[in-house]
């Protein structure tokens, strides 16, 4: 969509994308090409299209902003804006390739620089959308609106596959108005009635109860109960944002140890790399949150 937007405006040179190291955008060829080049898809690098990558944001979500954190992205766009159609990022919360919560100011800086260079901004809110970070969308932490946004997962409550790409008016108009043509992409099962009915029900349910209070309660509880893990040998960091908790360990747990903890506690944990994490449903009661944090701590303890 971003590339077709630029071509529709006569900017044929803008045919590449930029993303962040530590990012994760999916497991199809196009999505893998935009995920961390040193991450889980490394073995497929020779197969994938080549894009630009800026350094991973390091300034923590709850820390004082450091402008040096944006230097890599600023330089990348200054040097290659004539080649870049769009920048795609997971706002505030980098998922499976990093489990990283970064400062909202990064997004504000990114919005300004993208505008300066006539580059579209895409937010991947697949994992972060619909309340996961404590806001309805993670972009709300920064007060920034992208040109294109990808949503899914919680959109349909996890009961049936559905995702959506949402474009601003100026993007859709550039592609489809004045005889330029139509958007050249559409999956066979796009907007199928069953998935859309599930999504409608899921969104109505989300809006029917005070999920914000639930997420805040879970965030406070997980912060409190996981705090002691900071003192464990071999633990590098503990971080919590909204209804997501992460313990970063030096040594990757063995599959046998993971299964031992899963069987013992009856809590399904799926550590990824050095990150032991949990993303519980927003309706999880306090005693079950404790059950999850206890399992996480025991696995982190080695």
Provide a quick synopsis of the model.
With about 300 residues, this protein is of the alpha/beta class. The chain contains nine helices and eleven strands. The protein folds into two domains: about 1-205, Type I PLP-dependent aspartate aminotransferase-like (Major domain) (Aspartate Aminotransferase, domain 2), CATH 3.40.640; about 210-300, Aspartate Aminotransferase, domain 1 (Alpha-Beta Complex).
Number of helices: 9
The global form is globular
- How many discrete domains? 2
Q: Widest sheet: strand order?
A: 2-1-3-6-7-8
Oligomerization state of this entry?
A: single chain
* Rg from alpha-carbon coordinates: 20 Å
CATH topology of the largest domain: Aspartate Aminotransferase, domain 2
CATH architecture of the largest domain: 3-Layer(aba) Sandwich
Average pLDDT, to the nearest integer? Answer: 95
Name the poorly predicted regions: none
| Helix vs. strand class | alpha/beta
- Span of the ends, CA to CA: 46 Å
Summarize the main sheet.
Answer: 6 strands, mixed
Keywords, please?
302 residues; alpha/beta; Aspartate Aminotransferase, domain 2; Aspartate Aminotransferase, domain 1; 2 domains; three-stranded antiparallel β-sheet; 9 helices; 11 strands; 33% helix; globular
Detail the topology: elements first, then pairings.
Blueprint: H1 2-8, E1 16-20, H2 29-33, E2 52-54, H3 71-80, E3 84-89, E4 93-94, E5 100-101, H4 105-116, E6 120-124, E7 148-151, E8 164-167, H5 169-176, H6 193-208, H7 211-226, E9 235-241, E10 244-249, H8 255-265, E11 275-278, H9 286-300
Parallel strand pairs: 1-2, 1-3, 3-6, 6-7
Antiparallel strand pairs: 4-5, 7-8, 9-10, 10-11
């Amino acid at each position: 969509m971003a590339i077709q937007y630029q071509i529709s405006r006569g900017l044929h040179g803008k045919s590449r994308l930029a993303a962040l190291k530590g990012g994760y955008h999916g497991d199809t060829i196009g999505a893998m090409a935009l995920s961390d080049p040193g991450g889980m898809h490394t073995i497929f690098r020779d197969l994938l299209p080549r894009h630009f990558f800026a350094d991973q944001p390091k300034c923590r979500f709850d820390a004082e902003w450091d402008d040096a954190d944006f230097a890599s992205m600023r330089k990348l766009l200054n040097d290659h804006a004539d080649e870049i159609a769009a920048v795609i990022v997971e706002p505030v919360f980098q998922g499976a390739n990093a489990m990283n919560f970064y400062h909202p100011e990064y997004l504000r800086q990114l919005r300004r620089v993208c505008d300066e260079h006539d580059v579209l901004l895409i937010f991947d809110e697949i994992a972060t959308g619909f309340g996961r970070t404590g806001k309805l969308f993670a972009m709300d932490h920064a007060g920034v609106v992208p040109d294109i946004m990808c949503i899914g997962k919680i959109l349909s409550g996890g009961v049936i596959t559905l995702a959506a790409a949402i474009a601003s008016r100026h993007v859709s108009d550039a592609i489809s108005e004045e005889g330029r043509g139509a958007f050249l992409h559409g999956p066979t099962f796009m907007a199928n009635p069953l998935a859309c009915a599930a999504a409608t029900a899921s969104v109505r349910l989300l809006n029917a109860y005070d999920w914000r209070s639930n997420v805040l309660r879970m965030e406070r509880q997980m912060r409190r109960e996981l705090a002691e893990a900071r003192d464990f040998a071999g633990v590098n960091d503990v971080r919590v944002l909204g209804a997501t908790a992460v313990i970063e360990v030096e040594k990757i747990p063995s599959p046998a140890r993971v299964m031992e903890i899963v069987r013992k506690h009856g809590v399904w944990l799926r550590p990824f790399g050095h990150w032991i994490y949990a993303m519980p449903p927003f309706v999880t009661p306090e005693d079950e949150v404790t059950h999850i944090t206890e399992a996480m701590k025991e696995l982190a303890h080695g």
